[in-house]
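User: I'm curious whether this sequence folds into something compact or stays loose and floppy. Could you predict its structure so I can see for myself?
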Amino acid sequence: MKHLIPLFMMMVLFAGSCKKETGKEESIKNTTMVTAEQQTPENIFQFEVTDLYGERFDFSSLKGKKIMVVNTASECGLTPQYAHLQKLYETYKDNNFIIVGFPANNFGSQEPGSDKEIAAFCKENYGVSFPMMSKISVKGNDMHELYHFLTEKKRNGLENSEVAWNFQKYLLDGEGRLVRVVQPQTLPTDESIISWIEKN
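Assistant: Here's the prediction. I'll summarize afterward.
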């Protein structure tokens, strides 16, 4: 009988140890699941902004379309890119593609005008017909929330970036996910961009 008591105690301790390990495994599993959920990238469809004419623009209306977001300026050496943007838009607007422009005065104060002045400039000089939004900031302490999404990997799931200059392009797929960052000097009509638009 004396020999049975230590044996019984060992069995109880072993059972308790197994239970603790199982609980530990469950805890690890739950932590992993929460972490995976937290890392799910955001998409652009959560944003609503205002266009140059004071009208509400809801990005959720663009579901299923490939989107190019570009920061623009009226007095920049790259301003002629407006013509390339318009050409690209006219060519592919019926192919589930859209361009959304955001005037910004962050670089060399090259977009000093009001929304009304910017609208007139774009229409008169380049016949811009793709959606143009109200002027915002694309970097710095007053950066617009949409650009926090575009430039922060923890939110877009792709990469950290910084808007280097006017006419930097952000390409998003039909699910509103960021897929590529294109530097300002690269023309909107670059072959790599066209290939991306045409690819199913």
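Summary: The helical segments are 4-38, 81-92, 115-126, 145-151, 153-156, 191-198. The mean pLDDT is 88.
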